[in-house]
Specification:
3 copies of one chain form a homotrimer. Chain A is of the alpha/beta class and about 350 residues long. Chain A contains 12 helices and 15 strands. In chain A, α4 crosses α5 and α6 runs parallel beside α7. Bound molecules: magnesium ion (5 copies).
């Protein structure tokens, strides 16, 4: 026991911060029912949306503002994902990064967009080894991130999803080993922490191979109710035709659990930023959007930024790239059908 | 192998430091016999004492001096506990913090007071998550702390006890999970390290719920001889009447192992520093002191400081607070009975 | 996914760095065949060589140069070991330390000497506790070191061996516990990482008791093909006569796996740097070199430095010490028999 009287001030500040983070007209609290995401009144929702780039990157370049969200809304998005890089979180500092997130969550809420907060790392959390330095984190930092986020957004309904770990991968052993059982235990511990700290957003869990592979879910699902699963089925993860492979690798999950593809996207072989595994063409766009429509799967396109690839626009006039043209149309058509 | 000749100097310095730390007339070496702490000649001892605040805090405010120990002696204490906060240990530095401890141990020894060195953290050591930042530490730092302390005080008999980890808690899952088996393994590893480094003080082990709960000891005691158990039964951990609940939760341990309540205390609901779980009145003092007397249980009152709560005095004239008045009398009466 | 276009530059730089690290006339790629190290054409090789001191230490004192390698060659060495201290690796920085290694590997290759890169730490990697601060590292840093080294030297045939961890020890419990099964798992994870990152050098694995004891290999060998085992049989690890004890403790391994003693050496009781466990005389030199010859075991003498002990020369004229005189003759005789 150690109780210092002046210590009360901090708790008070945090409570006020949470109230300010809530929009004037809250969105309906999302939850899981069967294999669907549903609103408070039980109505199923399938999302189509856009990935922001890191709020830290956008703020530094002067683009973390309401107009960025208005443009995503105009493109037809109903959800937006915030990829929080561990290095950005550490370097900006917790309190300052939360202020960034609060602003983005407020703009999203005012425009009726749900938010996914994504701990944007790539690697093997068991060994704390990563694809490159900007993804470096620890188990402890990951747990503390979710402790903080769960507490901070506990009463905020705009933040509909917590994506626990962007892309798990051992890089073919370059980062050592991690079994599904070890990964599952890490995800279950994270969910325990989130919920004990009051977090009500839906936890989203990915599998290995850079969040592509969910086959282990068949025999050994995450031991927690009310969660969704994630895949990132970029075009080159499998050879065309994709559909049967997608069903075997991750699509089967959608029969039993809600599924959301938090990253999809493509660019042509000669486009700026072309790299494995994203090189393809509009036939990929057709295939993945039809597959999602047919199976009630949500998706979020990577990435609403003119520098990160595959990019959706070329400059800050929001001029669409090749995939930007494709997905702007796809999302707007979905929006008119709602 | 790498042996650098000038390296001999450091070892010499450490040996001299240890000799200086020993009082002129050493106290009798304590050990465990059955369910009792006993002196070298086998005489059982039950302690009543006081918690110092962190030596680092006392030194910074000019109160880490012999008169502080003389006052504790006048209040009737036979033991004093030093709560070493990990953040204070790190910030002051190992060598400088050891100098503080050496001074306090010397003053205590001269006055015939035994010392408990307490690694004063609160949280889940398995996940390295804590109640708040001042309690942050790692498994490695915890092991290294005890390696250092065990070696430094190996021949000092004033330091009768090493309290391995102040208050284990998962905070209802906010800090993730830790099973008793996992906790037990961490404590056993710590005891192995202490003893291999020559530490002869009695290791003290606490259980979950902020060191309140020892029920797991019944079926799965720590696998080590010569240790004691700890509880911190503040009044609001259970509803009055307490006695049967105390017996079920931790008191039963005293039939088989030595037991010491390294923190007890109360304050009135309107007193400065009142907070859960310490709010009560003198009936708590009566109950806990009688329970300890009846069962041969040692206790140490929290805290001999005018700012930390529940405080025992109001200012540096050592004017007793409400609980200070109560416990000063209780300890002095015990002292006259010795 | 996050792909930043300017990021290409770094990959290009690393590839160029690797090419420059390769000598003009490459040595034959070593591999394991049965219980022998063999060249690419299957010819068995038994090595006799010398331990450099830490390249960082040599560079700081102006001795990391081609003449140092020429002198080792003159003494009859066919292999040289580079003990990389974790603190030196961290303090100099990865890129700068790799430049040091590249120079040494190039000089060795030009002179026909194979190189062992040795992660020179002493302690319990499981608990991340060490004999003293210069040996401090973490599991993560150890894995990352080997990820870096494996990738950097993947096509370099001079670097014949990766010695994964110099001297594992729990120091009789002072560093806690580590079972052989726990140690084995750490070594297997390291080997997985090395090979997935393209490392083709032969991994060398030591056992507890400061790399002396390999008895656990009998019942529970490392689960990986193509590796060698290590012992450091300094004279005082066992009482003379040594031979039967050596066979029981580590020599038996040589019947089934390639074995290399990456540290041997002695000094007289009054020599500078004399310390446990290295004090002996020439009878130790006779015994260990004969034992190695009789059993096809490679060895590397500690240490080609005038300050670290047991030293092989007294000053930078390379004047041999007592053990220097002994081993210079032993190596040169071996060299004439080749
Ligand atoms: Mg307490
Ligand atoms: Mg993967
Ligand atoms: Mg050695
Ligand atoms: Mg607890
Ligand atoms: Mg991705």
């Amino acid at each position: 026991m150690r109780f210092s009287v002046p210590g009360l001030a901090l708790g008070f500040f945090l409570v006020v911060g949470q109230l300010l983070a809530q929009p004037a007209t809250p969105l309906s609290r999302l939850r899981v029912q069967g294999n669907a995401f549903v609103t408070a009144d039980g109505k199923p929702v399938v999302f189509q949306g856009l990935n922001a780039s890191d709020p830290d990157k956008l703020e530094k370049s002067g683009h973390w503002d309401r107009s960025y969200f208005e443009e995503m809304k105009r493109w037809g998005a109903t959800i937006v994902r915030f990829p929080v890089h561990p290095a950005a979180w550490r370097n900006r500092g917790k309190a300052q990064y939360l202020q960034l997130l609060d602003k983005g969550v407020a703009w999203a809420g005012e425009l009726g967009l749900y938010v996914v907060i994504d701990w944007h790392t790539i690697g093997n959390l068991k060994n704390e080894m990563y694809q490159n330095p900007m993804y470096e984190t620890t188990r402890r930092e990951t747990f503390e991130f979710w402790r903080t986020i769960a507490d901070h957004y506990k009463d905020n309904t705009t933040v509909g999803f917590f994506e626990l770990f962007n892309e798990p991968t051992v890089m073919g052993g370059k980062l050592g080993t991690c079994s599904w059982a070890e990964w599952k235990a890490l995800m279950e511990e994270t969910i325990t922490i989130i919920r004990a700290n009051g977090g009500k957003a839906i936890p989203l869990v990915a599998g290995f191979n850079w969040a592509y592979d969910l086959r282990d879910v068949a025999g050994s699902p995450i031991n927690a109710e009310g969660i969704g699963y994630v895949s990132h089925p970029y075009p080159m993860k499998r050879e065309k035709p994709w559909e049967d492979k997608w069903t075997a690798d991750w699509g089967f999950v959608a029969k039993k659990y809600p599924l959301i593809l938090t990253e999809i996207g493509f660019c042509g072989p000669d486009d700026k930023g072309a790299h494995v595994p994203v090189i393809s063409d509009e036939s990929y766009g057709d295939a993945i959007t039809r597959y999602c429509d047919a199976n009630g799967i949500s998706y979020i396109v990577w990435v609403f930024d003119p520098q990160w690839a595959p990019m959706l626009f070329t400059d800050w006039t929001y001029k669409p790239t090749r995939q930007g043209t494709y997905f702007k149309k796809a999302l707007q058509q979905q929006a008119t059908r709602r």
